[in-house]
């Protein structure tokens, strides 16, 4: 409980997080000293502090809901090597195990090769979540991390939703059809403007198919 009080007074009281568009990352301002912003999703931001190096604090935007559902999803999921782990939670935030590595989006941007083992790990993690009665959704390049050839799923906030999410299926199809045949021979970086154009184009594609979208 001391840790939660410390987070409330040291971070939540000061930081401002607003989601202006559900398809774009949140805007973050007024981050307190010693806290470091390490990630922005479309509904929340993630912070680290040197006093808790093995944990992250995920804070939801003031105008977005979903924390209760994410807490429940973690409680159902339990422990698995390809997922984070929930330690504690407050009114607007979760304290999670820190996962180290680089997202697949960043790997593409930096020209770091993505091995097949990462894709296979994510497939196994999805299978595990389904065995727990969850519906793994919203899994894509920004929500998957890799390190040492291993794959990790960063965000499970949509795992209680009932919709059929095609994102991971489409990502895998692109990986095996386009990415792997080309990048296994010679890796090169993909500029941010091109990655963002693909991301936005995919959002339009999803919307045209009448499918639910939350993250991007």
TrEMBL record:
Query: Any idea which UniProt keywords this protein has?
Result: Kinase, Serine/threonine-protein kinase, Transferase
Q: Which residues form the Protein kinase domain?
A: 32-216
Which GO MF terms does the UniProt record name? Answer: ATP binding; protein serine/threonine kinase activity
Is the keyword Transferase in the record?
Answer: yes
Which Gene3D superfamilies would you find in this protein's record? Transferase(Phosphotransferase) domain 1
Membrane spanning segments where? none
- Name the record gives this protein: Serine/threonine protein kinase
